[in-house]
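Slide 14.
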Amino acid sequence: MKNIEESDNFMNVDRISTLIDGIFAIAMTILILSIEVPIISGPVSNKIIESSLNAIIFPFLSFFLSFILLAMFWTINHRNMQHIKRIDNVFLWINVVWLMFIVIVPFSSELSGMYSNFILPHLIFNLNMLAIAILLYLSIYYADNKGLISDTMENNKKKSIIRSSRFFILIAMLAVVLSFITPSGSGLIYLAVLFEKFF
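Slide 15: predicted structure.
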């Protein structure tokens, strides 16, 4: 007889946590693969190498930003999952769709880094971040309303997580707007999330 942790309607938390960890590990690794070491033809000098490296500054900045954001998303999710006592089908699929947008990040990151002066690449990246932020909030909101959260999570901590998730959504929305005003600088708004998390 199946128990409540692994039945037709509920899944063991460890199974989806393992899937999430694996997908994040792959997505974060793939990010760096979009940056190739410049190939220099002809005579090589420090000045030529410096010039070649300057050409990949924006792709590298895009990698750095995306890696930090993915690390933050993974950390938030990991802390949330520690307090989830069971997973139903709706919660499962919210997280599966969330992971789909996580997997898209290497693409949107490379796109914004390669075409840093154009609106559309940054708009796609910031919409990607917005979708991730919304689904992350929806995940904890649904879990809270459906009684999927363990009693071990204090109410103040629960409110803090929901507040942080809403703040992330706001920042991503501002980044979308900034995509039309200052495309290459729109990602700087995410520094506010780092400030909110650590200060």
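Speaker note: Residues 12-198 form one domain.
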